[in-house]
Amino acid sequence: MIDRPAAWVAEAAGGRLLTGDPAAPGPNRAVVDSRIAGEGDLFFGLPGERTDGGRFASAALERGAWGVLVEPDAGDALVADVALTLAALTVAAGGSERRPPDPRPDAEPPQEQTPLGADAVHSTLADVFPDEGIVVLESPSSTLALRNRVRIGRPGSYWFGAGGGLGFGLPASLGVQLAEPDRPLVCVLGEGSAQYAITGFWTAAAYGLPVTFLVLNNSEYSILKWFAGLESVEGAPGLDLPALDCAAVAQSYGVRSERAGSRDELHTALSGAIEAAEPRLVEVAVQPGMSIG
Description:
By secondary structure, the chain is an alpha/beta fold. Helix content is 33%, strand content 15%.
Protein backbone atom coordinates (compact mmCIF):
# COMPACT_ATOMS: atom_id res chain seq x y z
CA MET A 1 0.00 0.00 0.00
CA ILE A 2 2.78 2.45 0.93
CA ASP A 3 4.86 2.34 -2.21
CA ARG A 4 6.17 4.42 -5.08
CA PRO A 5 2.73 5.71 -6.27
CA ALA A 6 1.97 7.05 -2.80
CA ALA A 7 5.35 8.75 -2.57
CA TRP A 8 4.88 10.14 -6.05
CA VAL A 9 1.48 11.64 -5.16
CA ALA A 10 2.95 13.24 -2.04
CA GLU A 11 5.85 14.67 -4.05
CA ALA A 12 3.44 16.05 -6.65
CA ALA A 13 1.66 17.91 -3.85
CA GLY A 14 4.95 19.36 -2.66
CA GLY A 15 5.16 17.23 0.45
CA ARG A 16 6.58 14.00 1.86
CA LEU A 17 5.31 10.47 2.33
CA LEU A 18 5.36 9.80 6.08
CA THR A 19 5.54 6.15 7.09
CA GLY A 20 5.60 4.37 10.40
CA ASP A 21 7.44 1.31 11.69
CA PRO A 22 8.00 -1.20 8.87
CA ALA A 23 8.32 -3.99 11.45
CA ALA A 24 4.94 -3.32 13.04
CA PRO A 25 2.25 -5.97 12.43
CA GLY A 26 -0.59 -5.47 9.92
CA PRO A 27 -1.79 -1.97 9.13
CA ASN A 28 -0.05 -0.63 12.25
CA ARG A 29 3.14 -0.44 10.22
CA ALA A 30 1.66 2.56 8.43
CA VAL A 31 0.75 4.62 11.47
CA VAL A 32 2.72 7.79 12.16
CA ASP A 33 2.35 10.60 14.65
CA SER A 34 0.25 13.00 12.59
CA ARG A 35 1.55 15.97 14.57
CA ILE A 36 4.66 15.99 12.39
CA ALA A 37 2.60 16.18 9.18
CA GLY A 38 2.79 19.48 7.33
CA GLU A 39 1.51 20.98 4.11
CA GLY A 40 1.39 18.48 1.25
CA ASP A 41 2.52 15.52 3.41
CA LEU A 42 0.74 12.20 2.95
CA PHE A 43 0.34 10.04 6.05
CA PHE A 44 -1.59 6.95 7.11
CA GLY A 45 -3.37 6.17 10.34
CA LEU A 46 -5.79 3.87 12.13
CA PRO A 47 -8.96 5.68 13.28
CA GLY A 48 -8.88 5.94 17.05
CA GLU A 49 -5.65 3.94 17.47
CA ARG A 50 -2.23 5.52 17.95
CA THR A 51 -3.54 8.58 16.12
CA ASP A 52 -3.79 11.32 18.72
CA GLY A 53 -6.97 9.87 20.18
CA GLY A 54 -8.66 9.65 16.78
CA ARG A 55 -8.19 13.35 16.10
CA PHE A 56 -5.22 13.02 13.76
CA ALA A 57 -7.05 14.15 10.64
CA SER A 58 -8.52 17.45 11.75
CA ALA A 59 -5.34 19.18 12.93
CA ALA A 60 -3.08 17.75 10.24
CA LEU A 61 -5.50 18.47 7.43
CA GLU A 62 -5.82 22.06 8.60
CA ARG A 63 -2.09 22.34 8.00
CA GLY A 64 -2.57 21.09 4.43
CA ALA A 65 -1.56 17.45 4.95
CA TRP A 66 -3.30 14.48 3.41
CA GLY A 67 -4.54 11.60 5.54
CA VAL A 68 -5.48 8.01 4.74
CA LEU A 69 -7.55 6.09 7.27
CA VAL A 70 -6.49 2.45 7.28
CA GLU A 71 -9.21 0.00 8.27
CA PRO A 72 -8.14 -3.67 8.34
CA ASP A 73 -9.93 -5.64 5.61
CA ALA A 74 -11.99 -2.59 4.65
CA GLY A 75 -9.78 -0.82 2.14
CA ASP A 76 -8.40 2.70 2.38
CA ALA A 77 -10.06 6.12 2.21
CA LEU A 78 -8.14 9.22 1.19
CA VAL A 79 -9.10 12.35 3.11
CA ALA A 80 -7.59 15.32 1.34
CA ASP A 81 -7.93 18.97 0.48
CA VAL A 82 -9.79 19.28 -2.82
CA ALA A 83 -7.44 21.86 -4.31
CA LEU A 84 -4.33 19.86 -3.38
CA THR A 85 -5.89 16.69 -4.76
CA LEU A 86 -6.73 18.29 -8.09
CA ALA A 87 -3.25 19.80 -8.31
CA ALA A 88 -1.66 16.41 -7.69
CA LEU A 89 -3.94 14.67 -10.18
CA THR A 90 -3.11 17.32 -12.77
CA VAL A 91 0.57 16.55 -12.38
CA ALA A 92 -0.09 12.81 -12.37
CA ALA A 93 -2.19 12.88 -15.53
CA GLY A 94 0.33 14.90 -17.51
CA GLY A 95 -0.51 17.06 -20.50
CA SER A 96 -3.50 16.64 -22.77
CA GLU A 97 -4.39 17.92 -26.20
CA ARG A 98 -8.10 17.53 -25.53
CA ARG A 99 -10.09 20.74 -25.63
CA PRO A 100 -11.48 21.68 -22.20
CA PRO A 101 -15.21 21.07 -21.85
CA ASP A 102 -17.49 24.03 -22.23
CA PRO A 103 -18.67 25.63 -18.97
CA ARG A 104 -22.10 24.55 -17.83
CA PRO A 105 -24.72 27.00 -19.02
CA ASP A 106 -26.66 29.06 -16.53
CA ALA A 107 -30.05 27.74 -15.50
CA GLU A 108 -32.95 28.73 -17.71
CA PRO A 109 -35.10 31.60 -16.46
CA PRO A 110 -37.95 30.24 -14.33
CA GLN A 111 -41.42 30.02 -15.79
CA GLU A 112 -43.99 32.62 -14.87
CA GLN A 113 -46.82 30.67 -13.28
CA THR A 114 -49.17 30.62 -10.32
CA PRO A 115 -48.44 29.10 -7.91
CA LEU A 116 -44.72 29.60 -8.37
CA GLY A 117 -42.48 26.79 -9.51
CA ALA A 118 -39.69 25.67 -7.21
CA ASP A 119 -37.23 26.99 -9.80
CA ALA A 120 -38.64 30.50 -9.33
CA VAL A 121 -38.45 30.16 -5.55
CA HIS A 122 -34.80 29.15 -5.62
CA SER A 123 -33.93 31.79 -8.19
CA THR A 124 -35.34 34.34 -5.78
CA LEU A 125 -33.41 32.80 -2.90
CA ALA A 126 -30.24 33.06 -5.01
CA ASP A 127 -30.91 36.77 -5.53
CA VAL A 128 -30.89 37.49 -1.79
CA PHE A 129 -28.58 34.77 -0.48
CA PRO A 130 -25.55 36.36 1.24
CA ASP A 131 -21.99 35.34 0.36
CA GLU A 132 -21.38 34.11 3.89
CA GLY A 133 -24.74 32.32 4.10
CA ILE A 134 -25.43 28.70 5.03
CA VAL A 135 -28.10 26.43 3.53
CA VAL A 136 -29.60 23.47 5.37
CA LEU A 137 -31.71 21.66 2.78
CA GLU A 138 -34.56 19.21 3.15
CA SER A 139 -36.92 19.86 0.30
CA PRO A 140 -36.62 16.57 -1.59
CA SER A 141 -38.75 17.49 -4.59
CA SER A 142 -36.82 20.72 -5.21
CA THR A 143 -33.28 19.71 -4.24
CA LEU A 144 -31.98 19.81 -7.81
CA ALA A 145 -33.63 23.17 -8.46
CA LEU A 146 -31.78 24.67 -5.50
CA ARG A 147 -28.45 23.14 -6.52
CA ASN A 148 -28.84 24.48 -10.04
CA ARG A 149 -29.60 28.03 -8.95
CA VAL A 150 -28.06 28.86 -5.57
CA ARG A 151 -24.27 29.23 -5.76
CA ILE A 152 -22.39 28.38 -2.58
CA GLY A 153 -18.65 28.96 -2.59
CA ARG A 154 -17.54 28.80 1.05
CA PRO A 155 -16.75 25.57 2.95
CA GLY A 156 -19.24 24.50 5.60
CA SER A 157 -22.11 26.26 3.86
CA TYR A 158 -24.24 23.38 2.57
CA TRP A 159 -25.86 20.78 4.81
CA PHE A 160 -27.86 17.96 3.27
CA GLY A 161 -28.93 14.49 4.40
CA ALA A 162 -27.08 12.32 1.90
CA GLY A 163 -28.85 9.15 3.02
CA GLY A 164 -32.29 10.36 2.01
CA GLY A 165 -33.92 10.09 5.42
CA LEU A 166 -36.66 12.59 6.24
CA GLY A 167 -36.89 14.90 9.23
CA PHE A 168 -33.31 16.01 9.81
CA GLY A 169 -33.51 19.48 8.26
CA LEU A 170 -35.33 21.55 10.88
CA PRO A 171 -33.39 20.33 13.94
CA ALA A 172 -30.10 20.28 11.99
CA SER A 173 -30.52 23.94 11.11
CA LEU A 174 -30.74 24.81 14.81
CA GLY A 175 -27.54 22.94 15.57
CA VAL A 176 -25.68 24.50 12.66
CA GLN A 177 -26.85 27.98 13.70
CA LEU A 178 -25.63 27.37 17.23
CA ALA A 179 -22.27 26.31 15.81
CA GLU A 180 -22.11 29.27 13.40
CA PRO A 181 -23.85 32.11 15.29
CA ASP A 182 -22.30 34.87 13.16
CA ARG A 183 -23.42 33.52 9.79
CA PRO A 184 -26.92 33.84 8.29
CA LEU A 185 -28.63 30.50 7.79
CA VAL A 186 -31.55 29.56 5.56
CA CYS A 187 -33.30 26.25 6.25
CA VAL A 188 -35.15 25.14 3.11
CA LEU A 189 -37.95 22.69 3.86
CA GLY A 190 -40.88 21.03 2.23
CA GLU A 191 -44.09 21.24 4.20
CA GLY A 192 -43.99 17.46 4.59
CA SER A 193 -40.40 17.38 5.81
CA ALA A 194 -41.18 20.02 8.41
CA GLN A 195 -43.70 17.74 10.15
CA TYR A 196 -41.12 15.25 11.41
CA ALA A 197 -39.57 17.67 13.92
CA ILE A 198 -42.13 20.45 13.98
CA THR A 199 -41.45 21.31 17.64
CA GLY A 200 -38.06 22.60 16.52
CA PHE A 201 -39.86 25.86 15.86
CA TRP A 202 -40.36 26.19 19.61
CA THR A 203 -36.63 25.65 20.17
CA ALA A 204 -35.77 28.31 17.60
CA ALA A 205 -38.09 30.79 19.30
CA ALA A 206 -37.07 29.90 22.85
CA TYR A 207 -33.37 30.37 22.14
CA GLY A 208 -33.75 33.23 19.70
CA LEU A 209 -31.89 31.41 16.91
CA PRO A 210 -31.96 33.63 13.81
CA VAL A 211 -32.72 30.86 11.33
CA THR A 212 -34.70 31.76 8.21
CA PHE A 213 -37.10 28.92 7.44
CA LEU A 214 -38.17 28.79 3.78
CA VAL A 215 -41.03 26.33 3.37
CA LEU A 216 -42.07 25.22 -0.11
CA ASN A 217 -45.65 23.96 0.13
CA ASN A 218 -46.83 21.81 -2.79
CA SER A 219 -49.68 20.13 -0.85
CA GLU A 220 -48.26 16.64 -1.35
CA TYR A 221 -45.43 14.25 -0.61
CA SER A 222 -43.96 14.70 -4.07
CA ILE A 223 -40.83 12.66 -3.43
CA LEU A 224 -42.88 9.69 -2.21
CA LYS A 225 -45.19 9.94 -5.21
CA TRP A 226 -42.09 9.91 -7.38
CA PHE A 227 -40.75 6.80 -5.64
CA ALA A 228 -44.16 5.16 -5.99
CA GLY A 229 -43.98 5.76 -9.72
CA LEU A 230 -40.52 4.20 -9.89
CA GLU A 231 -41.92 1.11 -8.18
CA SER A 232 -45.05 1.07 -10.38
CA VAL A 233 -47.28 1.59 -7.35
CA GLU A 234 -50.60 3.19 -8.19
CA GLY A 235 -52.92 4.94 -5.76
CA ALA A 236 -50.59 4.90 -2.75
CA PRO A 237 -52.58 6.43 0.14
CA GLY A 238 -51.63 9.33 2.38
CA LEU A 239 -49.46 11.23 -0.10
CA ASP A 240 -51.72 14.26 -0.54
CA LEU A 241 -51.30 16.92 2.16
CA PRO A 242 -54.09 19.44 1.67
CA ALA A 243 -54.33 22.50 3.91
CA LEU A 244 -51.11 22.07 5.90
CA ASP A 245 -50.29 25.53 7.22
CA CYS A 246 -46.68 25.64 8.37
CA ALA A 247 -46.81 29.41 8.80
CA ALA A 248 -49.64 29.12 11.31
CA VAL A 249 -47.95 26.27 13.18
CA ALA A 250 -44.63 28.11 13.41
CA GLN A 251 -46.44 31.27 14.53
CA SER A 252 -48.09 29.27 17.32
CA TYR A 253 -44.65 28.26 18.56
CA GLY A 254 -43.46 31.86 18.56
CA VAL A 255 -41.75 32.14 15.18
CA ARG A 256 -42.81 35.19 13.21
CA SER A 257 -44.21 33.89 9.92
CA GLU A 258 -45.56 35.15 6.62
CA ARG A 259 -46.68 33.83 3.25
CA ALA A 260 -45.52 34.89 -0.18
CA GLY A 261 -47.43 34.39 -3.41
CA SER A 262 -45.18 36.10 -5.96
CA ARG A 263 -41.47 36.50 -6.58
CA ASP A 264 -41.61 40.13 -5.47
CA GLU A 265 -43.33 39.20 -2.22
CA LEU A 266 -40.86 36.37 -1.70
CA HIS A 267 -37.89 38.62 -2.36
CA THR A 268 -39.08 41.14 0.21
CA ALA A 269 -39.95 38.49 2.79
CA LEU A 270 -36.65 36.60 2.46
CA SER A 271 -34.55 39.76 2.54
CA GLY A 272 -36.20 40.85 5.78
CA ALA A 273 -35.98 37.39 7.34
CA ILE A 274 -32.29 36.92 6.56
CA GLU A 275 -31.45 40.31 8.07
CA ALA A 276 -33.52 39.72 11.21
CA ALA A 277 -31.93 38.85 14.55
CA GLU A 278 -34.67 36.31 15.33
CA PRO A 279 -36.14 33.21 13.70
CA ARG A 280 -38.47 33.91 10.79
CA LEU A 281 -40.49 31.67 8.50
CA VAL A 282 -41.56 32.33 4.93
CA GLU A 283 -44.00 29.90 3.35
CA VAL A 284 -44.68 29.86 -0.38
CA ALA A 285 -47.13 27.73 -2.32
CA VAL A 286 -45.46 25.95 -5.25
CA GLN A 287 -46.43 23.74 -8.14
CA PRO A 288 -46.84 20.03 -7.33
CA GLY A 289 -44.41 17.44 -8.61
CA MET A 290 -40.65 17.16 -8.86
CA SER A 291 -38.60 20.17 -9.91
CA ILE A 292 -35.18 19.65 -11.48
CA GLY A 293 -34.71 23.21 -12.78
